[in-house]
Amino acid sequence: MSNPSDLKYTQTHEWIRVEGTKGTVGITDFAQHELGDIVFVEAPAPGTSLSAGSPMGSVESVKAVSEVNAPLSGAVAEVNPELADHPELMNQDPYGKGWILKMTLSDPGALGGLMDAAAYEKYVAEVTH
Amino acid sequence: MSRAIEEKLIFEKDHPGRTGASLPACDVPAADPASLLGPLARREAPALLPELSEVDVVRHFTRLSTYNYAVDMGLYPLGSCTMKYNPKINEEVARLEGFARLHPMQPESMAQGALELMATLQRHLCAVSGMDACTLQPSAGAQGEFTGIQLIRACLEDRGDARRVMLIPDSAHGTNPASAHFAGYEVEQIQSGADGCVDLAALSARMRPDVAGIMLTVPNTLGIFEKNIAEICRLLHANGSLVYVDGANLNALMGITRPGDWGADVMHINLHKTFSTPHGGGGPGAGPVVCKAHLEPFLPKPVLVQREGRYAWDHERPKSIGKVQAFFGNFLVLVRALAYIETLGGEGLKRASELAVLNANYLRAQLLPLLKLGFDGPTLHEVVFCDKELPNGVTTLDLAKRLIDYGFHPPTVYFPLIVHGALMIEPTETEPVEELDRFVEAVRAILEEARDRPDLVKSAPHAAYRRRLDEVAAARNPRLTYRPESPKG
Amino acid sequence: MRYFPSSDEDVRALLAASGVKGVEDLFVSIPSEVRLKEPLAVPAAVPEPELRERFVGRSIRNSSATCRPCFLGAGAYDHYAPAAVDQLLLRSEFYTAYTPYQPELAQGTLQAIFEFQTMMADLTGMDVSNASLYDGGSATAEAALMAHRIHKGRRVLVARSLHPAYREVLRTYLRHIGLTVEEIPFGPDGRLDLGALKSRLDAEVCTVLVGQPNFFGVVEDVRAVASALPQERRPLLGVAVSEALSLALLEPPGRQGADIVCGEARSFGLPLGYGGPYLGFMTTRTQHMRQLPGRICGQTVDADGRRGFVLTLTTREQHIRREKATSNICTNEGLCMLAATIYLSLVGRKGLRELAVQNLSKAEYLKARLAEKGLRPLFASPTFNEFAVKLPVEGPKASEAAYAADLLGGYDLSRDYPELAGGHLLCATERVSKAACDRMADVLGGLS
């Protein structure tokens, strides 16, 4: 699966789609592949404030837990209601139906630390070798 | 291909009107729960227990037992678990009524036999480990770790400096960081060097005043002896820190070398590993803690003492960390451990370690042409291979599951985490050479299958009561109890 | 040595095949400075017949409940276990197996765990159960830790009437992780003092822990405790059951508003064993299942779609989450769990209730006989199979007198409760006869 070019990526394998002051967050195809079958997602409640680069929740497979970090700072606006019963959406459609949460960005312009798709692919190639 | 009877859940076998136990006749007037206990205290619905005869229940659990694999059936080479043979006399003596029906709150004067037994076991555990004092209270290894780290903390606090950090190598069992955390320490992982041992230079550089201690498993989970152990103890002590030894792998060391002589301050011993008390399908175990004299004042209370030739419990222990178990420990497990030690004697214990290491080295030599080592170093009681040379996308898990079809319990897999696709094999001293050879032949055959018919290996097991179980489905939609069909009508 | 299959000839062959000259060379990786130079200071091997004699000797130097009717409870109750329980435990397919890490080879153990979880969840009125914990003491401590994970508050309120040893274990477990343990007194009825409880509640209280029955044998009004808790930042109500047989008669704590039920299930088929191994347990509601400590078994299917069982929700555990695990527990009390499952299957739903009624009847009979002698219960509240009386003498003197009359017990409450001088705890199970109760009443009634 190729990484969509309209998203921004983190070194900890999260993606964010920024639309105005809103952001939608998920984990990358690489991350879901590394974890394997995802069985549980722990997401913060709406209203929780998020800090860029800090843990905001976790994703679990049968034998591993991976923390999910907030790509940018802001507050949780909405959590994907489908994931509680269908965590497999994160495996099947990591950039679509497998989104984790939507957030209100505190500083929508500050995308400095994030990578674009090309940079992220280069980064993944490096960390896997 | 399994022809075993499909045994239902016990609740599905419910047969109203049957009974499996005979209660004594009640020789006093029957009390009325409703009037005595009042409405708030009354249970309305009967419990969801079956009504079955003794025959039904015995057959149910006997059939269930046939779905298990066990040491008494063959090699059970789980690394770091020390699945050795469990002697039958130990089971017999642990069931003597003078032990089994002894109440923990009886006065010491009525329990002198039990107390002498515990004192003797404590003495032997100190002798084997080179330590000065012992508590038998912890119920299993992890609780022993927790107790031991609490002793370290209490000792440091007594000096006025609890400190903050516990150092733990990356090869450690997960209980180590968890135990340190619950004792209030921050866990700092230290990397293993290229030889699988602690990197002495890096450790030396980390010796700052915030380090409370280090937790080391020796030999480590790679089966490798920490060659600089004496120097590590000196480094830590010079820094005012203490050394905790996880005794999970003590089976390699009895009569050969003693943690107390290295300079270690405290360790736990898994009686259900080294001292052959059975694992019981996941316990009960026992995790006694032995320590040097400077930690003795902090031991859990009560402490066993001798006064005028009689044994007694000393509850007046102002510096004690408190209690980790409601009573004195898993006593009936302790009975079995002492029976084992007295059966083997000092020489026998040493021989057990020698033969355990010999068996592991034999397996290593025989498997070396077939599998790739996880770490290239001399191994003691267990040997770790990695998944590097497995063909056709066959994984460690596939190899493990296929071993089931050849009549073996698989080794520990994917641990230690620092070895890719780890296969951790600990045969113990109680395996005959024929059984080891049969295992080697099975691995050889499976690797051939992996080359020629990889799908056969990837879909294993085929000959067990169940084929591969869907752990993903279990975790996604947890069903943790039986739910009866809703009653009709 | 009969446990070592390798003959001297085998050893030579194994050494040769391993490329090692002698046994000594197996240990070259151990530096000589740390090698043990002398033999282990452990006496020589004892042959099996002599060993058995030695252990029989040790066992008869105890005066167990075999010899005398047992009126001692205090967290360990003398019940009869049908012979079938132990015979099944002796099947080595169960007792010589490891924790069921390879489910295809452990369906027997796993199905038994699933049955146990179902029984315990039902008995306690909860949705889910774990596969066991060490004992009632550590289960109580684990309940507090779990409540803290869920609630985040740092104050733990515990009933002073909860088992003293459980409270001590609780303090040891909580000492270094920034949680405080505060005791709530009992009222003149022996129950948790609700007024005192209410005055101590605030948003930082993560749990309120009560014993059921409590250490005095008194049945707590769990509903009243539950309704005393605030709705806002409600602390979790933990109920610690030290006599599991009471669950057959009492309203399940889960129905009374408990959030976590934990405790000791040794009464279900396990020996007194001088204090261990016992059987800790914990049950809770579905919403909290991911915060449970210990092993959990779940139902699934195999590759052919047949029902099977596996250890599940394992990401809670130390081997995956390491220092962030819900508990450090690894080996638990597997075989004790099996004993309880077999016991409950044999006794059945009617039998268990009947047994519980019989325990209640024995205790009430003893209570009445003591009252005839002028020995009144210390507390007027309802009790199950254990209760406290007020004696005119000190506890040890009563125990000695009982012992002289070939009786065992009771328990001197002033050991743990200085404010209850003369308080004497007596338990009566199905194993004590009417005649033994009469004798105990005579002995205690004759003290002055």
Describe this entry's structure for a reader.
The complex is a heterotrimer of chains A (about 130), B (about 500) and C (about 450). By secondary structure, chain A is of the alpha+beta class. Chain A has helices spanning about 30-35, 90, 115-125; strands at about 10, 15-20, 20-25, 40, 50, 55-60, 65-70, 75-80, 100-105. The longest helix of chain A has 11 residues, at about 115-125. Chain B folds into 3 domains: about 10-75, no CATH class; about 90-345, Aspartate Aminotransferase, domain 2, CATH 3.40.640; about 350-475, Aspartate Aminotransferase, domain 1 (Alpha-Beta Complex). Helices cover about 35% and strands about 10% of the residues of chain B. Chain B has helices at about 35, 55-65, 90-95, 95-100, 110-130, 140-160, 175-180, 200-205, 230-240, 260, 330-365, 395-405, 435-450, 455-460, 470-475, and strands at about 135, 165-170, 185-190, 210-215, 240-245, 265-270, 290, 305, 310-315, 370-375, 385, 410-415, 425. In chain B, the strands form 3 sheets. Chain B has a 7-stranded mixed sheet with strand order 1-7-6-5-4-2-3, sandwiched between helices. In chain B, strands 10-11-13-12 form a 4-stranded antiparallel sheet, with helices on one face. The longest helix of chain B is centred in the last third of the chain and has 37 residues, at about 330-365. Chain C is α/β, with parallel strands linked by helices. Chain C has 13 helices and 12 strands. In chain C, helix 3 (about 85-90) packs antiparallel against helix 11, helix 5 runs parallel beside helix 11 and helix 11 packs across helix 13. The longest helix of chain C has about 40 residues, at about 335-370. The interface between B and C is large, with 204 and 208 residues.
Note the overall shape of chain C: globular
Unreliable stretches covering 5 or more consecutive residues of chain B: none
Secondary structure: number of strands of chain C = 12
Helix content of chain B: 25-40%
- First-last Cα distance of chain B: 41 Å
CATH H-level name of the largest domain in chain C... which superfamily?
Answer: Type I PLP-dependent aspartate aminotransferase-like (Major domain)
Strand content of chain C: 5-15%
Average pLDDT figure of chain B: 95
What is the element string of chain C, with H for helices and E for strands?
HHHHHEHEHEHEHEEEEEHHEHEEH
Provide the domain count of chain C: 2
Return the CATH topology of the largest domain in chain B: Aspartate Aminotransferase, domain 2
